[in-house]
Structure formats: C-alpha cells, structure tokens
Amino acid sequence: MAADGVRGTGVMLSQADEGMRLFKMAEGTPAEFDSKAAELYKAQVDARIASLEAEGALLTGKDNKKMRAAKGKEVAELKGEQRYVDACKIVKGLEPKFGNFVLKAAEVPTAETQAKETEPAADSVKKAKEKKEAKKQESAGLSPAETKELEDLKQKIIERKGLLKEQGMSGGQQNKDEEVVAMVNRMNELKEKQDPGSTKKEKDAKKDAKKKTPLSQEEQKEYAKLKDEYEIYKAKCRTEFGYTNKDLKADPDIQEMEEKLSAFEKRS
User: CB within 8 A of 206, min separation 6: which ones?
Assistant: First the structure.
C-alpha cells in the first residue's frame, strides 16, 4: 500500500512538472544579464560620486558656491546616467530599464505571433461575411436603374394626378385611375425592395402602439421626418393639384402616412 502511495505521488509530481514546463514555455525565456559587469560599473560610479560629494563638502562659503553647485550637478548627472541606472537595477535583481548589460534578450510569445497564426481563419471569416453582405445588398437594395425608376415614378404620379385634376376628377377618382394604380403598385414594389420587411415594420409598429412602448431614438427621428413629409405632401396636393379636404382624406398616400403617424403618436 505504501509503495502504491509513493508510486501515485510520483505520477502526480510528474504531471505537475509537465504542467510547469508548459507554463514556462507559454511565458517564454527570461533575459540573461551580465551581473558581474553591472556590479563593477556601479562600484566605479559610486566611487566617483563619493569623491565628488567629498570635494563639494570642502567647498564652503559664498565664494565656492558656483564650484559646489557644479560638483552637485556632476553627481546628479552620474546618478541619472542610463548605464548606471541599469547597473543599479540589475544589482537589486530587477530588469534594466534602458537595456544595458543584457547578454540575451527575453523570448516572449507576442500577440503579433498569435495573430499571424489566426490570420488565415480570420481572413476567411471576413471574406465570407463580406460576400454575404454583398449578396444581401444585391438582393435587397435597388440597382441604379431601379432607383431612377422609383424617383421617376413619384414624379409621374404627381404629374398624372395633376392632369386628371385639370380634367375635373376628384382626388378619390384620380387614385382609382388605372395608370395611377399601376404606377403606385410598381412604386410600392420598389420601396419594398429598397427597404425589405417594410410591411413587417408597419405591423410591428401597430403592435407596439397597442403595447404603448416608448419610441426609440431611431423611431423618434423617423417620426419627425414623416411629419415633415406629410405636411409638405399635403401642401403640394392643395397648391398644385387643388385638392379639397375630401380629396386629401381619400388620397391613399396620405392615408398611409396618417396611419403611421397615428401609430407613432400613440406611443409618444
């Protein structure tokens, strides 16, 4: 039993030694210093400092003030000299601040080395992410031609309604015009492609209105922007197309904006 105990203890010690070895490998190799040279240099400078201080002590009185100050300055320079500072540190068992008396620099695994090892994997993930984003933008965003088509449609709808207004049609009748309906449908398709999930956003806005959750900072900006667009569009319908209050109420774009504004107002 005693032999088994000793044998088991030996295994445990072996595992502990291996663990310490691996730990030291991870820490790297410590630097090696020339302690003897550091001690010798420190002793020489200390002797020079002691000599200067003794000379300064003999320079008494006002007449020797400048010379005494010069000796003190020389002492200060010696004590602050980098080689002397490093020698003092090595004698105390510390690492030199300025790299003097180093026989072999320390070898420490750097973050740069670890980064280089992980660069291929990181680049692969980055490229995959960029490719995914590019596909997402390609499928979700509008092409330059579609963006121009959307802007043209908005203008054409305004112009078509203006023409119908001149023909004596009310706002409700204008909105039922086949050409206007077709352009509005196409415009909504492009808007949905430009902002995927916009329909879902409207549903979520209605749910949030019921829950009476406060508006986020982003929603507050959207609310303010929508109010401006709503007022500008209403004014344009009155001045350019001669809309009456009844025509404004029947306009589908105004109805949509009022519905969104109402949802925001309930939560603000």
Answer: 263
- Of residues 200 and 236, the one with the higher pLDDT is 236
Q: Residue 68 above 70 pLDDT?
A: yes
Q: Which of 190, 102, 189, 74 is nearest to 143 (CA)?
A: 190
For 173-205, the pLDDT digits (tens) are: 888 889 989 998 988 888 888 887 665 666 566
- Tokens read off for 81: 């000299």
Residue among 99, 82, 72 at smallest CA distance from 42: 82
Q: 71: exposed, middle or buried (C-beta count within 10 Å: 0-12, 13-18, 19+)? A: buried
241 contacts: CB under 8 Å, gap ≥ 6: 158, 161, 162, 165, 171, 174, 247
d(CA 64, CA 69): 9
Name the token pair of 106: 């320390």
Query: Can you tell me which residue has the tokens 């072996």?
Result: 14
Averaged pLDDT of the chain: 79
Query: Is this model's pTM higher than 0.85 or not?
Result: no
Q: Please check whether residue 163 is in contact with residue 176, taking contact to mean a CB–CB distance below 8 angstroms.
A: no
∠ CA 241-225-184, nearest 5°, is 45
